[in-house]
């Protein structure tokens, strides 16, 4: 074989390897690399996961995790704020690469999207009207037709209430803040919602609500992507493993869950 044929053959082989490598990352990672953006869907208003600050920017636990992910990818973090009831369709139509929105992993959602390993585990707790303090000590006590329970539409709070408090009167609201206000104003007996939000709301509204803080459900939260991309799932799981191992996760967690100095930033 001549030197020219050998060199040309090596060039062709390298080109094939390069082409193969360029498509092996999977469609989501390829699009992130090509666009130079990581587009992340969430529904701002879920303390302390994603919120809108007074200056109009988005802040929170999920926001910081998303920004760290984009930074390690070497791309721009692009927030995609969308209504909760449309967040999965928004993902599936390609308007964002992933959902990072405090989304509970469950079978119904898993039929439409793929979830990475849980990045945090929470559960439903109870915000109670003070007049019921001592009388109601668990969700079982609220399972009675004399009580009005509120929660946010389309959430695991709504699912848990329908499943475990079927005898109570249920009112659902577009936002968790509106639902909590019903309890604080004495128009509802209890809010069933995610423990982190309830804990923060109770701290901000002492005397207006009572927090029964022990969660009565087990709810792992996970990052969601469109189905069929094992490479993106592999990336997400390895990213989570890395930041939990090097202390980055703990620093972000402590900032949002063990310190309330950020409250002055949000609306």
From TrEMBL:
Domain of life: Bacteria
MF terms (GO), sorted A to Z: ligand-gated monoatomic ion channel activity
Ranges where the Ionotropic glutamate receptor C-terminal domain occurs: 37-259
Keyword terms, alphabetized: Signal
GO cellular component, one term: membrane
Cleavable signal peptide: 1-25
CDD domains for this protein: PBP2_Dsm1740 (cd13629)
Stretches assigned to the Solute-binding protein family 3/N-terminal domain: 37-260
Family stated for the protein in its record: Belongs to the bacterial solute-binding protein 3 family.
Designated name of the protein: Amino acid ABC transporter substrate-binding protein
